[in-house]
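User: Predict the structure for this protein chain, please.
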Amino acid sequence: MRMLLLAIFAFCAHALQAQTTLKGTVKDPDNNLVPGASVMISKTKVTVTNEKGEFIFTGLAAGKQVITISFMGFETSTRTISLKDGETRVVNVALVSSAETLQHVEITGRKESGYKNTNSFIGTKTATPLKDVPQSVSYVTKEMIQDQQAMRIGDLVKNMSGINQHTTYDDLDIRGFRTQNNSRYRW
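Assistant: Here is the predicted structure, written as structure tokens:
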């Protein structure tokens, strides 16, 4: 029994001693800390840097590990490091800025202030003149909504062709297909 306890104690002591740790900080090219950067080690463990740009991994296996740091607006940094059993390694990383462009956003307004609309985004995802849209489109302008003081869907669809209201609970027929009231879609 005594030998068994001694063996368990020796195993636990070795396991505690073999605690390999990797920690460090992530900075930008101007030497500012980068909070929220993603840090991944050997595609198995992932963490995010804290408000001081620091990260820490504990309980790592000894040997070669690949550390990958990424953050929006910076190039991804990858390093291969060799860890020894029981070692605490500090790795400080300075990210390099990258010039990434996102899709452009186009904001379009209309100068009309009446009930007539000349363009539609329905069916084409671009501002297309209504006469060129390849399908039948109905619309209600903000001026019509304000003038009629429309508060419910039923108040709006009475101006649209192909839509009939069955009850006051917004049960609608849209070109032959019936929709039923669903309180999640109330305005």
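The chain has a mean pLDDT of 78.
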